[in-house]
Amino acid sequence: MPLPARRPGNPLLNDRTFASLPRPGIGAGNMSIKGTVDKSFLLLVVLMVSALWPWSQMASGNAQAVSGIMMVGLLGGFVLALVISFKANLAPYLSVPYAALEGLALGGISAVLEQRYRGIAIEAVGLTFGVLAALLIAYRAHLIRVTDRFRAVVIGATFGIMLLYLASMILGWFHVSLQALYAPTPLGIGISLVIVAVAALNVVLAFDLIERGVAGGAPKYMEWYCAFSLMVTLVWLYIELLRLLSLTRRS
Fold this sequence. Notes:
Number of strands: 0
Number of domains: 1
Oligomer: single chain
Number of helices: 7
Structural class: mainly alpha
Largest sheet: none
Shape: globular
Protein backbone atom coordinates (compact mmCIF):
# COMPACT_ATOMS: atom_id res chain seq x y z
CA MET A 1 0.00 0.00 0.00
CA PRO A 2 1.54 3.34 -1.03
CA LEU A 3 2.11 5.77 1.79
CA PRO A 4 0.22 9.04 1.61
CA ALA A 5 2.19 11.70 -0.20
CA ARG A 6 3.44 14.34 2.18
CA ARG A 7 4.94 17.74 1.52
CA PRO A 8 8.63 16.91 1.13
CA GLY A 9 11.53 18.75 2.57
CA ASN A 10 11.49 21.79 4.75
CA PRO A 11 10.60 24.91 2.79
CA LEU A 12 9.89 26.52 6.17
CA LEU A 13 13.62 26.95 6.70
CA ASN A 14 15.30 28.93 3.94
CA ASP A 15 17.71 31.77 3.45
CA ARG A 16 14.97 34.37 3.99
CA THR A 17 13.56 32.84 7.17
CA PHE A 18 15.28 35.31 9.47
CA ALA A 19 15.92 38.17 7.06
CA SER A 20 12.80 40.25 7.63
CA LEU A 21 12.16 39.47 11.30
CA PRO A 22 11.85 42.37 13.74
CA ARG A 23 14.62 42.57 16.30
CA PRO A 24 13.44 41.69 19.83
CA GLY A 25 12.82 44.57 22.19
CA ILE A 26 14.69 45.23 25.40
CA GLY A 27 14.23 42.30 27.75
CA ALA A 28 12.39 40.26 25.14
CA GLY A 29 15.26 37.80 24.72
CA ASN A 30 16.82 36.19 21.70
CA MET A 31 16.59 32.78 20.16
CA SER A 32 19.09 30.27 21.58
CA ILE A 33 20.31 26.80 20.67
CA LYS A 34 19.28 25.41 24.07
CA GLY A 35 15.81 26.91 23.81
CA THR A 36 15.32 25.46 20.34
CA VAL A 37 16.56 22.01 21.41
CA ASP A 38 14.27 22.01 24.47
CA LYS A 39 11.25 22.93 22.38
CA SER A 40 12.14 20.36 19.72
CA PHE A 41 12.31 17.68 22.41
CA LEU A 42 8.94 18.74 23.81
CA LEU A 43 7.30 18.56 20.39
CA LEU A 44 8.83 15.13 19.82
CA VAL A 45 7.43 13.86 23.13
CA VAL A 46 3.97 15.24 22.29
CA LEU A 47 4.09 13.56 18.88
CA MET A 48 5.10 10.19 20.30
CA VAL A 49 2.47 10.27 23.06
CA SER A 50 -0.22 11.24 20.57
CA ALA A 51 0.81 8.41 18.25
CA LEU A 52 -0.06 5.88 20.95
CA TRP A 53 -3.80 6.46 20.50
CA PRO A 54 -4.21 5.19 16.91
CA TRP A 55 -1.64 2.50 17.67
CA SER A 56 -3.73 1.23 20.61
CA GLN A 57 -6.90 1.37 18.49
CA MET A 58 -5.28 -0.84 15.85
CA ALA A 59 -4.06 -3.24 18.53
CA SER A 60 -7.64 -3.59 19.81
CA GLY A 61 -8.88 -4.39 16.30
CA ASN A 62 -10.60 -1.07 15.63
CA ALA A 63 -9.11 -0.45 12.18
CA GLN A 64 -11.99 1.76 11.08
CA ALA A 65 -11.33 4.19 13.92
CA VAL A 66 -7.65 4.30 12.97
CA SER A 67 -8.52 5.49 9.45
CA GLY A 68 -10.61 8.34 10.85
CA ILE A 69 -7.97 9.33 13.39
CA MET A 70 -5.28 9.27 10.72
CA MET A 71 -7.29 11.55 8.41
CA VAL A 72 -7.92 14.03 11.23
CA GLY A 73 -4.18 14.10 11.90
CA LEU A 74 -3.23 14.49 8.23
CA LEU A 75 -5.70 17.27 7.43
CA GLY A 76 -5.39 19.08 10.76
CA GLY A 77 -1.61 18.92 10.71
CA PHE A 78 -1.50 20.23 7.15
CA VAL A 79 -3.75 23.20 8.00
CA LEU A 80 -1.72 24.14 11.09
CA ALA A 81 1.53 23.76 9.15
CA LEU A 82 0.28 26.24 6.56
CA VAL A 83 -0.79 28.73 9.25
CA ILE A 84 2.54 28.52 11.08
CA SER A 85 4.45 28.78 7.81
CA PHE A 86 2.90 32.15 7.03
CA LYS A 87 2.59 33.38 10.63
CA ALA A 88 5.78 32.43 12.45
CA ASN A 89 4.73 34.44 15.52
CA LEU A 90 1.89 31.95 16.07
CA ALA A 91 4.35 29.05 16.40
CA PRO A 92 4.44 29.24 20.24
CA TYR A 93 0.69 28.60 20.30
CA LEU A 94 0.20 26.17 17.42
CA SER A 95 3.35 24.01 17.43
CA VAL A 96 2.16 21.70 20.22
CA PRO A 97 -1.27 21.09 18.60
CA TYR A 98 0.56 20.50 15.32
CA ALA A 99 2.81 17.89 16.96
CA ALA A 100 -0.24 16.16 18.48
CA LEU A 101 -1.98 16.01 15.10
CA GLU A 102 1.18 14.70 13.41
CA GLY A 103 1.33 12.03 16.09
CA LEU A 104 -2.19 10.89 15.17
CA ALA A 105 -1.22 10.72 11.50
CA LEU A 106 2.10 8.94 12.00
CA GLY A 107 0.66 6.60 14.62
CA GLY A 108 -2.09 5.58 12.20
CA ILE A 109 0.25 5.12 9.23
CA SER A 110 2.71 3.15 11.36
CA ALA A 111 -0.01 0.94 12.84
CA VAL A 112 -1.43 0.09 9.41
CA LEU A 113 1.99 -0.86 8.04
CA GLU A 114 2.86 -2.76 11.21
CA GLN A 115 -0.10 -5.05 10.55
CA ARG A 116 1.39 -5.90 7.15
CA TYR A 117 5.09 -5.94 8.03
CA ARG A 118 5.85 -6.83 11.63
CA GLY A 119 8.59 -4.73 13.21
CA ILE A 120 8.64 -2.08 10.48
CA ALA A 121 7.64 0.78 12.78
CA ILE A 122 10.39 0.27 15.34
CA GLU A 123 12.90 -0.14 12.51
CA ALA A 124 11.83 3.19 10.98
CA VAL A 125 11.95 4.94 14.36
CA GLY A 126 15.42 3.55 15.06
CA LEU A 127 16.70 4.55 11.64
CA THR A 128 15.25 8.07 11.97
CA PHE A 129 16.95 8.67 15.29
CA GLY A 130 20.12 7.03 14.04
CA VAL A 131 20.26 9.28 10.98
CA LEU A 132 19.49 12.33 13.13
CA ALA A 133 22.29 11.51 15.58
CA ALA A 134 24.80 10.73 12.82
CA LEU A 135 24.03 13.96 10.97
CA LEU A 136 24.24 16.04 14.13
CA ILE A 137 27.63 14.55 15.03
CA ALA A 138 28.92 15.04 11.49
CA TYR A 139 27.65 18.63 11.41
CA ARG A 140 29.12 19.57 14.79
CA ALA A 141 32.44 17.96 13.83
CA HIS A 142 32.43 19.98 10.57
CA LEU A 143 32.49 16.80 8.52
CA ILE A 144 29.54 18.26 6.61
CA ARG A 145 29.93 21.88 5.53
CA VAL A 146 26.89 23.79 4.36
CA THR A 147 28.03 25.95 1.45
CA ASP A 148 25.93 27.96 -0.99
CA ARG A 149 26.31 25.19 -3.56
CA PHE A 150 25.26 22.57 -0.99
CA ARG A 151 22.12 24.59 -0.17
CA ALA A 152 21.28 25.11 -3.85
CA VAL A 153 21.61 21.41 -4.67
CA VAL A 154 19.54 20.21 -1.70
CA ILE A 155 16.81 22.81 -2.19
CA GLY A 156 16.67 22.06 -5.91
CA ALA A 157 16.40 18.33 -5.26
CA THR A 158 13.70 18.93 -2.64
CA PHE A 159 11.54 20.95 -4.98
CA GLY A 160 12.10 18.35 -7.70
CA ILE A 161 10.69 15.70 -5.37
CA MET A 162 7.83 18.03 -4.49
CA LEU A 163 6.97 18.33 -8.18
CA LEU A 164 7.19 14.56 -8.57
CA TYR A 165 4.69 14.05 -5.74
CA LEU A 166 2.43 16.75 -7.14
CA ALA A 167 2.49 15.11 -10.57
CA SER A 168 1.72 11.75 -8.99
CA MET A 169 -1.28 13.23 -7.17
CA ILE A 170 -2.65 15.00 -10.25
CA LEU A 171 -2.19 11.95 -12.47
CA GLY A 172 -3.93 9.88 -9.81
CA TRP A 173 -7.08 11.95 -10.36
CA PHE A 174 -7.04 10.68 -13.93
CA HIS A 175 -6.38 7.09 -12.80
CA VAL A 176 -2.78 7.22 -13.98
CA SER A 177 -0.29 5.85 -11.46
CA LEU A 178 3.46 6.40 -11.31
CA GLN A 179 4.17 2.83 -10.31
CA ALA A 180 7.92 3.42 -10.13
CA LEU A 181 7.39 5.35 -6.90
CA TYR A 182 5.74 2.44 -5.15
CA ALA A 183 6.86 -0.72 -6.92
CA PRO A 184 9.23 -3.06 -5.01
CA THR A 185 11.70 -3.08 -7.90
CA PRO A 186 15.35 -1.98 -8.03
CA LEU A 187 14.17 1.27 -9.65
CA GLY A 188 11.50 1.90 -7.03
CA ILE A 189 13.88 1.15 -4.17
CA GLY A 190 16.56 3.31 -5.78
CA ILE A 191 14.16 6.26 -6.07
CA SER A 192 13.15 5.79 -2.44
CA LEU A 193 16.81 5.75 -1.36
CA VAL A 194 17.44 9.03 -3.19
CA ILE A 195 14.41 10.65 -1.52
CA VAL A 196 15.57 9.44 1.91
CA ALA A 197 19.01 10.94 1.24
CA VAL A 198 17.49 14.30 0.25
CA ALA A 199 15.29 14.27 3.36
CA ALA A 200 18.37 13.61 5.50
CA LEU A 201 20.28 16.48 3.87
CA ASN A 202 17.36 18.78 4.66
CA VAL A 203 17.99 17.98 8.33
CA VAL A 204 21.52 19.33 7.86
CA LEU A 205 20.09 22.52 6.34
CA ALA A 206 17.84 22.85 9.36
CA PHE A 207 20.84 22.63 11.71
CA ASP A 208 22.67 25.27 9.72
CA LEU A 209 19.81 27.71 9.50
CA ILE A 210 18.91 27.36 13.19
CA GLU A 211 22.53 28.11 14.04
CA ARG A 212 22.51 31.16 11.78
CA GLY A 213 19.26 32.35 13.31
CA VAL A 214 20.85 32.26 16.76
CA ALA A 215 23.93 34.08 15.47
CA GLY A 216 21.68 36.70 13.88
CA GLY A 217 19.81 37.40 17.11
CA ALA A 218 16.37 36.19 15.99
CA PRO A 219 13.50 36.84 18.44
CA LYS A 220 12.64 34.28 21.10
CA TYR A 221 9.48 32.98 19.45
CA MET A 222 11.60 31.71 16.56
CA GLU A 223 12.73 28.87 18.83
CA TRP A 224 9.21 27.46 18.49
CA TYR A 225 9.15 28.11 14.76
CA CYS A 226 12.50 26.40 14.21
CA ALA A 227 11.54 23.46 16.43
CA PHE A 228 8.35 23.08 14.41
CA SER A 229 10.29 23.35 11.14
CA LEU A 230 12.81 20.72 12.22
CA MET A 231 9.93 18.42 13.11
CA VAL A 232 8.47 18.82 9.61
CA THR A 233 11.76 17.56 8.18
CA LEU A 234 12.00 14.64 10.62
CA VAL A 235 8.41 13.62 9.89
CA TRP A 236 9.22 13.53 6.18
CA LEU A 237 12.37 11.49 6.84
CA TYR A 238 10.42 8.99 8.98
CA ILE A 239 7.69 8.55 6.37
CA GLU A 240 10.23 8.01 3.60
CA LEU A 241 12.06 5.44 5.71
CA LEU A 242 8.75 3.66 6.26
CA ARG A 243 8.20 3.68 2.51
CA LEU A 244 11.69 2.34 1.82
CA LEU A 245 11.37 -0.42 4.40
CA SER A 246 7.97 -1.45 3.04
CA LEU A 247 9.43 -1.68 -0.47
CA THR A 248 12.28 -3.90 0.71
CA ARG A 249 9.81 -6.15 2.55
CA ARG A 250 7.73 -6.54 -0.62
CA SER A 251 10.65 -7.14 -2.99
